[in-house]
Amino acid sequence: MDAFALLPADLPPLTLALVSAASFCTSFVTAAFGIGGGMAMLAILASLLPPAALIPVHGLVQFASNAGRAALLRGHVQRGPLLPFLAGSALGAALGGLVAVELPPAAVEIAIGIFVLWSALASPPRVMRAGAGPAGFVSTLLTMFFGATGPFVAAYVKTLALGRMEHVATHATMMTAQHLLKVIAFGFLGFAFGPWLLPVALMAATGFLGTLAGKRALLRIDDRLFKRALAAILCLLAARLIWSGAAELL
């Protein structure tokens, strides 16, 4: 059997090669700096995949990417916030699956952008450290419509003031749970993941290689440089979100 015959009609071999290479690069960025790869991958897939498949397929790819990163760094995961985050995420996925109307994309982009920018530049109050449940609920609800809310979760994890290894490991574990719940919700909503399993498997494989390379880079930088790079990436992503949302409104 021709392996290419197993690919979705909307994903020719050359496009598959491009998204597989993109998965390596974006996974490297997230493993090395804790954030940025998921949103970059969403932007790339948005230009290559049919709209109906974009959010579900992106969720499955990001589940695999984050699961690999969480497994590699499992010894550094801070387990305290995980249970409330998971509970909030489950509620957010359930509610997101029941909402019949989409949230205004432009308003969502601007709101998340402002929050991420504030979190990157300001010193959040200590009360936010107890907000794993609300962070899981809001980010998972939004990801059902918006796709990439990694910066939102990273902004929450930043308030925990963790070291670079703990930050990346904890963020990856939270995102693994969030994307898994999103994939399950889209499955219940009737999205057919079957035709996309082979492309996702290839993207997961190249993404894991990117994670391995990114982990090596992460080990070589110190916490001070990591925090500066994280804040810079968060600011750039926030600016992109605000600009994109404002452009849609105008």
Order of helices and strands: HHHHHHHHHH
Shape, please? globular
Main sheet attributes: strand count, strand direction, barrel closure: none
Which class do the helix and strand fractions yield? Answer: mainly alpha
Low-pLDDT segments, ≥5 res = 1-5
Helices and strands in order:
Layout: H1 13-33, H2 37-46, H3 51-72, H4 82-98, H5 105-121, H6 132-146, H7 150-158, H8 164-188, H9 197-220, H10 223-249
Helix pairs in contact: 1-2, 1-9, 2-3, 3-8, 3-9, 4-6, 4-8, 5-7, 5-10, 6-7, 6-8, 7-8
Give an account of the 3D structure.
Belongs to the 4-toluene sulfonate uptake permease (TSUP) (TC 2.A.102) family. It is found in: Cell membrane. It is a multi-pass membrane protein. Keywords: Cell membrane, Membrane, Transmembrane, Transmembrane helix, Transport. It comes from Albimonas pacifica. By secondary structure, the chain is an all-alpha fold. The protein has one domain. 75% of the residues lie in helices and 0% in strands. The protein is globular. The N terminus is likely disordered.
Keywords:
about 75% helix, mainly alpha, cell membrane, about 250 residues
Q: Quick recap of the structure?
A:
This protein has 10 helices and no strands.
